[in-house]
Prior knowledge:
- The chain has a single domain (2-65), classed as Winged helix-like DNA-binding domain superfamily/Winged helix DNA-binding domain (Arc Repressor Mutant, subunit A), CATH 1.10.10.
- It is α+β, with helices and mostly antiparallel strands.
- Strand 1 (47-49) and strand 2 (55-57) form a beta hairpin.
- The mean pLDDT is 88.
- The protein contains four helices and two strands, in the order αααββα.
- 30% of the residues lie in helices and 8% in strands.
- It has a two-stranded antiparallel ribbon.
Amino acid sequence: QKVLTGAADERVLQRGHDRLSVFGIVDSEDAPLLSPLNRALQARGSLVANEHGGLKLAGDAKAILKGERTGSCSRRWEI
Length: 79
């Protein structure tokens, strides 16, 4: 989440994650949507853990990114 939102803390900088193409692509106002989206993509097998504990695309993830497939996730909002 830090990489996607552009939070350049010491750990992110040490690992060079600030140089990834996805660094900072999510606006802070959209950041709360990352966790439910992450869970939904993992549940359908489109996002899986890699050998370093990070996440990688799998299954139909590329088709989703290209707009060839769609998906949905729900989020509970407390009022």
